TrEMBL record, chain B:
Annotated Gene Ontology cellular component terms: plasma membrane
Transmembrane segments: 27-48, 68-87, 108-128, 148-166, 175-193, 199-222, 254-276, 334-353, 384-409, 421-451, 480-499
Region (Disordered): 1-21
A UniProt-annotated Pfam family: BPD_transp_2
PANTHER family: HIGH-AFFINITY BRANCHED-CHAIN AMINO ACID TRANSPORT PROTEIN BRAE, HIGH-AFFINITY BRANCHED-CHAIN AMINO ACID TRANSPORT SYSTEM PERMEASE
GO MF term list: branched-chain amino acid transmembrane transporter activity
Cellular compartments annotated: Cell membrane
Recorded topology in the membrane: Multi-pass membrane protein
Organism (species): Candidatus Amunia macphersoniae
Keywords (A to Z) from UniProt: Cell membrane, Membrane, Transmembrane, Transmembrane helix
Protein name: Branched-chain amino acid ABC transporter permease
N-terminal signal peptide: none
Length: 252, 524
C-alpha cells in the first residue's frame, strides 16, 4: 500500500484538503429519515471513529459514502470531487474500500476468490499480485485458509477476509463497519493492531464501532451519532473525557 | 499421530469416499446411459411391428440366419457382453451400498468386454449389410430397424468402453470425458435412429434447438441467478425476426446466416428491455415479471401488432437457406449439422464466459448483491448483460427454428415452452454446462423417442398379452406430465440436478438468503 497511495495522501495532508468530506447529508428510507444534516471530514492518513448506539445511522453513513444508498440532500466529496451522484461501482473504483456490516463474504467462493473479487475492477495484474502478498502478510491466517470456502471460516477469520477484500482494491479510504462484532476480545485486539498497521501504510480509515472505548483509543478523532445527527465530535482524547460520552457510551 | 497410521489399514482413496463431485456424476450418467442404450437396442426389435422388407429386423435375426458358426458365436458374445454392461450399474450400486471401491480389475474386465462387444456389433453390421445385399457404405435402408439397433448398440459399447476403460480419467476430468463421448454421439445422432429418417432428423434438430435454448437460459438462471419464467419470449422474437425477414410476408429475403446474427441482436435488445425495469427485483418477484413478459410477446404476435406478425396464423413459407450448392430445403440434415456447429461454438463461448471476469461477477452477484456492489461490480450492467446474452442465444435458436419449420405461429412460444426449457436445466444441473447438455438431451429423448415409441410398444404388448386397450393409449400427449414429474422428482431427490455445479452443491448444503441490494437501499 505504499506507492501511489502514500504519495497521494501525503500531498493531501500538505494541502490540508480532507480526503473525505460529508456536507449536510440527509438520507431518507421511504418516509423515515435516517440521516439529518450529517457533516464530517476525514483527513489524509487519519483513523476516524464513528460511534453511536443502534439505529443512530452509523451503517447508513458508510453505505451512503460507498454509494449503496443515495443521499436525498447534501454532498459527499472524495479528494474534493463530488461522488454522491455516482454508482457504488464507480465510487469503489475511485478508491473507497468498504468492509460492510456483517462481513458479507461470498460464502461459496474460496478465500482466495473472495480477495480476487476485491480486485475486480483493477487491471494491473502485478499490482494485484503484490497486494495479495500484502494482505497475506497482514493476515497470515487468511493465507493459511486461502483454499477454503469463505463460509466455512470462523467469525474472526471472516472479518479478516472482509478487510482483506476491501484492501485488494487498493483504497485511499477504508470504511470498516463494526469489525469487532461478535468476535472474542483477543481476536479483536489482533484485528485492531492490523487496522492500525494498515493505516500506517498510508490508508485513511473511517471506522464504526459499538465499542466506543476501543474505537476512540484507535482513532485520532471521533464523531458521535445520535438519531441520525452528529451529536458531538472532536479529538478522541477529548471525547473520552467528555462526561456525556462517558455516561452514554463508556458506561461510566 | 502419524505412527498410528501404520497399524491401521489404509483407507482406499476412491471417488465414492470423497464428496460427490461432478466426476462421479459423469461416471454414473455414462454407466447408466450405456446400459440403457444397450437395453433399448436389445428390446427395440421385439417391440416394433415387422414391416414389409423381410429379412433382418434384429441383430439376432441377422446373425442366426448367417453362416452357422459365426452367427452362434456372435450371438453369445453379444449376449454376454450386453449382460455385463447392463448389470454394471447394479454392481456399482452394490459396492456403493457397502461403501467400498469397485475393484479396478472389474473396470478393466468391463472395458475389455465393451471393446469385444463393439467389435462384434461392427461384425453384425457388416453381416447385415452383406445379407441384405446392400453396399457397406452409402444409402442405408431407411425402414430397417436393424440399423437403429446396431447404432444404439455401438454407442452403448463405446460409452461403456470409455467409462470403465478410462474410469480414472472420467472422474478426474469429467468435462473432457464428457466432451469426448458427447461429440461423436452428436455427430452420429441422425444416423443412429434410422427407423423413420424424417422424424428422427426433426427430433435431432429439435434437440439442438432446445439445447441452445437451455444453454441460453442457463446463463440467466444458472450463472446470474435470475429466475426467468418467460424465456420462450426471446425464442419467439428470434423466430419472428427470421420469419419477417426471410419470407414473402414483407417481401424481404435475407439469408439465414445473416438472420442468426440479426435474431441474436434483436432478442438481446429485448433482453435488455426486459432486464432494465426488473433490476431491483429478485427471486419470486422477478419470476412473476418474466412470466408476464413471456405471456405478452405471444399475445402481441396473436394480435398482429403493427400488422407485422400475421396474427394467429403466424408467418408461413419462410425461406430455407442454402450453403453453396446445398439446398437446406431438400437436404434437411444440413440444418442439423449447422446447428451442431452453432451449439459447439456456443458451448465453447459460454465456458470461457463462465471463467471470465463477467462470470465471476455473476457468481458474486448471485451470492451477495450488496458485497458485489461494494467491490466495484456494476450490478446494473452485469445483470443486463446476463439477460442480453441469454436472450441472444435464444434468438439464434429462434432463427433456426423458424427456418426449419418454415411456419411460425404464436402457439409455438407459449408458457409450456419456457417450462420445458426450465425443466431441462433443472434436470441436468442449473449452472453447469455439462449438466444442461445432459438435461436437454435426456428430456428431448424421452419426449421425442420414448413417448413416441411407447404407443407402438404398448400396442404390441397389448396384442401379445391380449389386452387390446393398451393399443389405444396415446403416450405422446403426456409430454407435460414428464416435465412435471421431472421437476418434482429432481427437487425432492437431487435438487442440484444430475450434474450439480460446484456453487449449487455448496448452496444446497448451507442455504440461507441474503438481504437484497434493494432492501439495503431502502427501496424494497
Amino acid at each position: 500500500m505504499t506507492g501511489t497511495a502514500a504519495v497521494l495522501t501525503g500531498a493531501d495532508a500538505g494541502s490540508g484538503m480532507p480526503v473525505l468530506e460529508l456536507r449536510e447529508v440527509d438520507v431518507l428510507y421511504g418516509r423515515v429519515q435516517a440521516l439529518r444534516g450529517v457533516s464530517l471530514t476525514v483527513g489524509a492518513g487519519e483513523i476516524v471513529a464513528l460511534i453511536g448506539s443502534n439505529g443512530a445511522g452509523k451503517t447508513t453513513t458508510l453505505r451512503t459514502i460507498s454509494g449503496l444508498v443515495r443521499p436525498s440532500k447534501g454532498s459527499i466529496l472524495l479528494r474534493g470531487q463530488p461522488i454522491h451522484t455516482l454508482g457504488a461501482e464507480k465510487i469503489a473504483r475511485l478508491g473507497v474500500g468498504h468492509a460492510p456490516e456483517g462481513r458479507r463474504l461470498f460464502g461459496r467462493m474460496t478465500v482466495r476468490e473472495n480477495l480476487d473479487m476485491g480486485a475486480y475492477s483493477r487491471k494491473d495484474r502485478a499490482g494485484v499480485r503484490s497486494d495479495f502478498e500484502r494482505v497475506y502478510e497482514l493476515f497470515p491466517r487468511v493465507k493459511e485458509r486461502s483454499g477454503q470456502l469463505a463460509g466455512s471460516l470462523s467469525g474472526g477469520e471472516q472479518q479478516m477476509v472482509a478487510i482483506g477484500r476491501a484492501m485488494m482494491a487498493r483504497p485511499t479510504v477504508l470504511l470498516l463497519d463494526e469489525p469487532s462484532l461478535g468476535l472474542a476480545p483477543i481476536v479483536v485486539e489482533n484485528l485492531f493492531a492490523v487496522i492500525r498497521e494498515i493505516n500506517q501504510g498510508g490508508t485513511t480509515v473511517l471506522l464504526i464501532e459499538q465499542n466506543a472505548l476501543l474505537a476512540l483509543n484507535t482513532a485520532r478523532r471521533g464523531y458521535v451519532l445520535e438519531v441520525g445527527e452528529v451529536a458531538t465530535s472532536g479529538p478522541s482524547q477529548e471525547l473520552l473525557r467528555s462526561p456525556e460520552v462517558q455516561r452514554a457510551y463508556l458506561g461510566m | 499421530m502419524p505412527r498410528l497410521g501404520l497399524l491401521q489399514r489404509p483407507q482406499p482413496v476412491t471417488p465414492q469416499a470423497g464428496p460427490r463431485g461432478s466426476g462421479t456424476s459423469t461416471f454414473w450418467i455414462f454407466s447408466l446411459g450405456s446400459a440403457m442404450l444397450l437395453l433399448m437396442s436389445w428390446l427395440l426389435p421385439w417391440f416394433v411391428r415387422p414391416t414389409s422388407s423381410g429379412v433382418g429386423y434384429s441383430p439376432m435375426d441377422v446373425v442366426t440366419s448367417s453362416p452357422t458358426g459365426i452367427g452362434t458365436i456372435l450371438v453369445y458374445i453379444l449376449a454376454v457382453t450386453m449382460l455385463i454392461m447392463v448389470l454394471s450399474p447394479v454392481l456399482e450400486i452394490a459396492y456403493r451400498l457397502r461403501k467400498e471401491a469397485t475393484p479396478r480389475r472389474f473396470d478393466t474386465l468391463r472395458g475389455i468386454a465393451a471393446v469385444i462387444g463393439l467389435v462384434s456389433t461392427v461384425a453384425v453390421f457388416v453381416l447385415a449389410r452383406i445379407m441384405r445385399e446392400e453396399p457397406l457404405f452409402g444409402q442405408i435402408d431407411s425402414h430397417s430397424i436393424t440399423d437403429s439397433a446396431v447404432w444404439l448398440t455401438m454407442a452403448g459399447y463405446i460409452i461403456a468402453a470409455v467409462t470403465y476403460g478410462a474410469r480414472q480419467r472420467v472422474t478426474h476430468r469429467p468435462s473432457l470425458a464428457f466432451g469426448a463421448v458427447a461429440l461423436p454421439f452428436g455427430l452420429l445422432l441422425p444416423l443412429m435412429f434410422h427407423q423413420a429418417p424424417d422424424f428422427i432428423l426433426w427430433a435431432a434438430e429439435s434437440l439442438a434447438v432446445y439445447m441452445l435454448l437451455a444453454l441460453g437460459l442457463n446463463v440467466v438462471v444458472g450463472f446470474a441467478g435470475l429466475l426467468d419464467l418467460g424465456y420462450a419470449a426471446f425464442f419467439a422474437i428470434g423466430a419472428y425476426t427470421c420469419a419477417s425477414l426471410a419470407s414473402p410476408k414483407h417481401s424481404i429475403h435475407l439469408p439465414l446466416w445473416v438472420l442468426i446474427f440479426l435474431g441474436a441482436a434483436v432478442a438481446s435488445m429485448f433482453g435488455a428491455v426486459l432486464g432494465a425495469p426488473t433490476l431491483r427485483l429478485r427471486g419470486d418477484y422477478l419470476a412473476i415479471v418474466t412470466l408476464g413478459f413471456g405471456e405478452i410477446i405471444p399475445d402481441l404476435a396473436t394480435n398482429n401488432v403493427g400488422k407485422l406478425t400475421g396474427g394467429p396464423d403466424g408467418i408461413s413459407s419462410i425461406d430455407q437457406p442454402a450453403l453453396g450448392p446445398i439446398h437446406f430445403g431438400t437436404n434437411k440434415e444440413w440444418y442439423y449439422w449447422s446447428l451442431l456447429v452453432v451449439v459447439i461454438v456456443v458451448i465453447i463461448l459460454l465456458r470461457n464466459l463462465e471463467r471470465s471476469r463477467m462470470g465471476r461477477a455473476w457468481v458474486a452477484l448471485r451470492e451477495d448483491e450488496v458485497a458485489a456492489a461494494a467491490t466495484g461490480i456494476n450490478t446494473t450492467s452485469t445483470k443486463l448483460l446476463a439477460f442480453a446474452i441469454g436472450a441472444s442465444i435464444s434468438g439464434i435458436a429462434g432463427a433456426f427454428y423458424g427456418s426449419i419449420v418454415t411456419v411460425v405461429t404464436p402457439q409455438d412460444f407459449n408458457f409450456s415452452v419456457s417450462v420445458s426449457i426450465l425443466s431441462m436445466i433443472v434436470l441436468g444441473g442449473i449452472g453447469n454446462i455439462t449438466g444442461v447438455i445432459v438435461g436437454s438431451f435426456a428430456l428431448t429423448f424421452v419426449i421425442f423417442w420414448v413417448l413416441q415409441n411407447l404407443n407402438e410398444w404398448s400396442g404390441t404388448l397389448g396384442q401379445t398379452i391380449n389386452v387390446p386397450t393398451l393399443g389405444n393409449l396415446n403416450f405422446s400427449q403426456y409430454t407435460y406430465i414428464v416435465y412435471g414429474v421431472t421437476l418434482i422428482l429432481m427437487m425432492l431427490l437431487r435438487p442440484g440436478g444430475l450434474i450439480p455445479s460446484r456453487a449449487r452443491q455448496i448452496e444446497l448444503k448451507s442455504g440461507g438468503e441474503e438481504e437484497s441490494l434493494a432492501a439495503v437501499q431502502g427501496r424494497a
